[in-house]
Amino acid sequence: MTSIRLGILAAFACTTLVAWLAQAGPGRSDETVTDPFLGQAEAIDEGELTYRSKCMGCHGKAGARGPNLFATKLTDEQFLETVINGRKNTQMPAFGLRLSPDDVWKVHAFIKSRDSL
Fold first, then answer.
1. CATH superfamily, region 3-29+37-115
2. Burial of 105 (0-12, 13-18, 19+ CB in 10 A)
3. Number of C-alpha atoms within 13 angstroms, CB side, residue 3?
4. Angle in degrees, CA 68, 96, 5, rounded to 5
5. Cα–Cα distances in angstroms (integers) from residue 24 to residues 27, 68, 73, in the given order
6. Which of 24, 42, 80, 102 is 20 to 30 A from 33 via CA?
7. Using CB atoms within 10 A of its CB, is residue 93 exposed (0-12), middle (13-18) or buried (19+)?
8. For the chain, how are helix, strand and coil distributed in percent, rounded to 5?
């Protein structure tokens, strides 16, 4: 993929995240962004399916090539940003073009539902 194409894709992913975060309304910068799907059984089930198909290959059931997401210390907002934008200088790709913010939140809800087990 050419660097121009990658730049366009990265800009789109960032724009998607910014637009989604802006939906939280005025004054959002003073508010904590939290996962709207926490504790919702149907969303957790959907998140598990997405985790198994998109995340498990690297993150496994308790960490593997990628860190153990079930022990993450990331805030909800940091988790969303990391999954959508990826992490520079790591193997973590940007999923902003493959998953919607709601899909990412559902994966997060699944992960958080396992924290308490």
1. Cytochrome c-like domain (1.10.760.10)
2. buried
3. 0
4. 125
5. 8, 29, 23
6. 42
7. middle
8. 60, 0, 40
Hey, where are the domains in the chain?
3-29+37-115
Tokens 């995340």 found at:
55
Q: Which structure tokens are listed for 72?
A: 């993450």
In angstroms, the CA 32 to CA 35 distance is 10
Length of the chain: 117
Give pLDDT tens digits along the chain (117 positions).
Answer: 555 555 555 555 554 555 445 444 444 455 789 999 999 999 999 999 999 999 999 999 988 989 999 999 999 999 999 999 999 999 999 999 999 999 999 999 999 999 755
